[in-house]
Design a protein that fits this description.
This protein is α/β, with parallel strands linked by helices. The protein contains 15 helices and five strands. A five-stranded parallel β-sheet has the order 2-3-1-4-5, sandwiched between helices. The radius of gyration is 25 Å and the shape is globular. The structure holds adenosine-5'-triphosphate and magnesium ion.
Length: 331
């Protein structure tokens, strides 16, 4: 990967990063319609480039097997989390990716500390784990609807300022612990405007094949728009850290949001820069001895090493017939 390309990706995502320690006010600081001067038709090719880049890096991540990546996706309803996952991960090997969606917690989950259920779904080394909603719900929906907190049966439960500050601290430390141990934490907030959410809800109502996506609860949540904007702003200000910064991705244009998400994930993988392992001289010698054994097993008429034969042909445009035995099969 050229440094130039890595630099271009870093520049592209820079305006989306929440500077650690800064105070965010969503409405003032981030425009859901921003598109970096790009046109939708440029978007197709860019996303394709991003997707192939991710495929290559994921393979290297799996081969190196020492680091993992956790991608947290947060958004308001109709923000486009599902579509982003579908498009951005379209090129990667499904064996290396694990997607977990977090809904209202179950009775069993409520019987544990609030980070417990998220810890169960962390990536292994070599894996990318995606959280479709994440531990950040614990300072978002739980904050906007304090009855969720009551269900958590905390000792001395008070929904006051102190509790949220404590949770921000705990989350920051948890993410620090993960990054120190080889797991990068990438956090993306898909920032949708209120008007675009209205349009997307209407589309879900107007088109019968989209009806299943619509839920009356989404409209109830929409009435709490300002409370959510406030909770998001506070959360972004308190939990964008040097080791796990937040990226606010403009989400009114789906095509642009997907490019941004792909670029942010690619940037993280490039920073890890995983390599295919070098097996070392001794192992290489053993491999070559095995190669000779396998070549001796070639049946009459077959190339000693059909793979090498094919690649040679590809390179020179013709076969290496001199190495072949007679065209006839034995017997
Ligand atoms: P989609 O609607 O696209 O299928 P979704 O993520 O909105 O995806 P839903 O089943 O509609 O999925 O909603 C999940 C609900 O669970 C959301 O309203 C969310 O706020 C809620 N939720 C998630 N985590 C928690 C939590 N820790 N405590 C309480 N509610 C939570
Ligand atoms: Mg929903």
């Amino acid at each position: 990967m050229s440094d130039e390309r890595a630099g271009r990706i870093a520049d592209f995502i820079e305006p989306l990063r929440v500077e650690p320690g800064s105070t965010v006010r969503l409405g003032r600081d981030f425009d859901p319609r921003y598109k970096a001067g790009l046109k939708k038709r440029d978007g197709v090719e860019l996303l394709q480039t991003g997707v192939s880049l991710l495929a290559e890096y994921q393979e290297r991540l799996a081969a190196q097997d020492s680091h993992g990546v956790l991608l947290c996706l947060q958004a308001l309803d109709a923000g486009g989390k599902d579509g982003t996952i579908r498009h951005v991960m379209s090129g990667v090997n499904p064996q290396g990716v694990r997607v977990s969606s977090f809904k209202v917690p179950s009775a069993e989950e409520l019987d544990h500390d609030y980070l417990w259920r998220y810890a169960q779904r962390l990536p292994a080394r070599g894996e990318i784990a995606i959280f479709n909603r994440s531990h950040y719900e614990e300072v978002l929906v739980v904050r906007v609807h304090p009855e969720n907190l009551v269900r958590q049966r905390l000792p001395e439960v008070e929904g006051g300022r102190d509790l949220w500050d404590r949770r921000y601290r705990e989350i920051n430390r948890w993410e620090r612990y993960l990054t120190d141990n080889g797991f990068s934490v990438v956090k993306i907030f898909l920032n949708l405007s209120k008007e675009e959410q209205r349009t997307r809800f209407l589309k879900r109502i107007d088109r019968p094949e989209k009806n299943w996506k619509f839920s009356a609860a989404d409209v109830r949540e929409r009435r709490r728009w300002d409370d959510y904007q406030h909770a998001f702003s506070e959360m972004l200000s308190a939990t964008s850290t040097k080791w796990a910064p937040w990226y606010v991705v403009p989400a009114d244009r789906k095509w642009f949001a997907r490019i941004c998400a792909a670029a942010i994930l690619a940037h993280t993988l490039m920073e890890i820069d995983p390599q295919y392992p070098d097996v070392g001289d001794a192992a290489r010698k053993d491999l070559l001895a095995t190669k000779r054994d396998l070549e001796r097993e070639a049946p009459e008429g077959a190339a000693a090493d059909p793979y090498e034969d094919r690649s040679e042909k590809g390179r020179s445009g013709k076969g290496r017939s001199g190495k072949r035995r007679s065209g006839k099969r034995r017997g």
